[in-house]
TrEMBL record:
Additional facts recorded: Carbon 2 of the heme B porphyrin ring is defined according to the Fischer nomenclature.
Keywords of the record: Cell membrane, Heme biosynthesis, Membrane, Transferase, Transmembrane, Transmembrane helix
Transmembrane segments: 32-49, 55-78, 99-120, 126-145, 229-258, 279-298
An example Gene Ontology molecular-function term: protoheme IX farnesyltransferase activity
E.C. code: 2.5.1.141
Pfam families linked: UbiA
Gene Ontology BP annotations: heme O biosynthetic process
Cited InterPro entries: Protohaem_IX_farnesylTrfase, UbiA_prenyltransferase, UbiA_prenylTrfase_CS, UbiA_sf
Gene3D superfamilies referenced in this protein's UniProt entry, alphabetically: UbiA prenyltransferase
Protein family (similarity comment): Belongs to the UbiA prenyltransferase family. Protoheme IX farnesyltransferase subfamily.
Descriptive protein name: Protoheme IX farnesyltransferase
Pathway(s) it belongs to: Porphyrin-containing compound metabolism; heme O biosynthesis; heme O from protoheme: step 1/1
Length: 306
């Protein structure tokens, strides 16, 4: 083989590996997990006065992240047939046949086992148990049952996605505190407006695939109203950290600004006059939750200084 041919084939080999790594990474829904890890990190910071122990923080975030990615990979595995039916998900590695079911099962099991063991042995058993509950809640209860059974799938399944700040909190303090549950409540209330905005936009795909999401079972108008109402519930939940004295005026300032924008988009969705509003509301909901947790963190550290 000539040198140029050798170079070409090693480049092709490298490309194949890069694509394979990207496919496995995609199974773990890395962008969703990254936002969850931010929420977990804020839970860690708020659980203790001063700075959290960096070693526990690293071990805790690794364990939570690996477990959440494991749960997401199980979701890909169990949903592979459904994912083939929807345009948004049809190019996923399993749905598209780029990864085999046994490979995904092995990957999901390895990630979950590594994540949970790391938490059990190097953080604390309570965090490992709560993370295992969230993993099963999303991968099994939501994906295998609720998603196909009831339009309330995400209100109940949302509890698993809302767990990260509590997991961060227990990783650092070893106990479940009311303040940590407030943070869970915020994400729990936020999940319906977050997801139903996307479900409105993708209503026809869900209908064709036979998934009983709210806009499919109860119609578009009812879903718009629910987004508006759950939006207010989220606003109320976000005021609780200030009302209970857990966070101060800096947080309140940030939360009010974010809530104005959040309710502006939810209002646009509710009115139903702008066909682009649901997708814009969905994307804003992600920035909203990220920035809200950032404000909690800023407030926590400024409280010590101001
Ligand atoms: C059961 C609860 C939840 C449901 C049903 C849900 C649903 C969804 C769906 C269907 C997508 C689109 C995914 C895609 O196109 O690949 C999405 C995207 C996203 N979700 Fe959620 N979500 C939930 C909870 C959460 C939570 C708790 C967080 C973070 C704290 C979160 C953060 C995100 C982010 C960052 C994206 C964008 C991902 C990207 O850019 O590809 N979600 N969500
Ligand atoms: C241990 C722990 C913290 C677990 C949480 C796991 C986790 C990654 C939850 C993500 C929530 C999510 C993106 C739901 C969408 O699922 P879907 O199946 O309805 O959406 P899809 O159609 O895009 O797959």
């Amino acid at each position: 083989m000539r040198n140029s041919e050798l170079l070409l084939s090693s480049r092709q080999e490298l490309n194949r590996y890069t694509v394979m790594i990207q496919d496995y990474l995609e199974l773990g829904k890395p962008r969703v997990v990254l936002v969850m890890l931010v929420c977990a990190a804020v839970g860690m910071a708020l659980a203790v006065p001063g700075l959290p122990d960096p070693i526990i923080m690293l071990l805790g975030l690794s364990g939570i992240g690996l477990s959440a990615m494991g749960a997401a990979a199980f979701n890909h595995l169990l949903d592979q047939r459904l994912d083939k039916l929807m345009l948004r998900t049809s190019r996923r590695p399993l749905a598209d046949g780029r990864i085999q079911a046994w490979q995904a099962a092995l990957f999901a099991s390895l990630l979950s086992a590594c994540g949970l063991s790391l938490l059990w042995w190097s953080v604390n058993p309570l965090t490992a148990q709560l993370t295992a509950a969230a993993l099963l809640g999303y991968a099994v209860i939501y994906t295998a049952f609720l998603k196909h059974a009831t339009p309330q799938n995400i209100t109940i399944g949302g509890l698993a996605g809302a767990a990260p700040p509590l997991l961060g909190w227990t990783a650092m303090s070893g106990q479940i505190a009311p303040d940590a549950l407030l943070l869970v409540l915020i994400i729990f209330a936020w999940t319906p407006p977050h997801f139903w905005a996307l479900a409105l936009h993708k209503r026809d795909e869900y209908a064709r695939a036979g998934v009983p999401m709210l806009p499919v079972t109860h119609g578009v108008d009812f879903t718009r109203l629910q987004i508006w109402l759950y939006g207010w519930l989220t606003v109320a939940a976000t005021l609780l950290p200030f009302a209970t004295g857990m966070s101060g005026l800096v947080y309140l300032f940030g939360a009010v600004l974010l809530n104005i924008r959040f309710m502006y988009w939810n209002w646009k969705v509710w009115r139903g006059q702008d066909p682009a509003a649901p997708l814009s509301a969905f994307w804003f909901s992600i920035r909203y939750i990220l920035y809200l947790f950032a404000w909690l963190l800023i407030d926590h550290y400024l409280k010590g200084v101001l």
